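QA checklist item 7 of 12: single-chain prediction sanity check.
[x] sequence parsed
[x] length recorded as 140
[x] structure emitted
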Amino acid sequence: MARWAHTHSIPLRPRGGASHDTALRTLEQAAEAPAILRDALTSPNAWQRLERFAAALPYPTVTDAARALGIHQSTLTTQINRLEGDLGRPLIERAERGRRMRPTPFGRKVAAAGHQTSHRPRLTAATTQAVAGRESFLGE
């Protein structure tokens, strides 16, 4: 394959290239993140999970939050569940009949720490719009 690519002047990614660099960058960012977030920052998509969790907080249900973020409800639920598993504590109290979804005290701390961290990558447009109302919800 490498010979064929070379013959046709197609550049190849060096061994340990982009994917390896991303994994190393994730570990560096985790080391520089607040202690409350470090256990959750285990993969390149960890920041996305954290941002989506924080963006979901102002909404009454996970379904409403997912719709606003432009993703499926099951995707958001899976990402929140993975964050809860990584951090070892519940982040939200799920919505029940007549009661909206609410962050736990620990969930508020995680969202605030994620919001204040300067090492996070750039947000997607949908997440940025959903996060816009978050500051007033968290009391910032």
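[x] summary fact logged: The mean pLDDT is 80.
[ ] second reviewer sign-off
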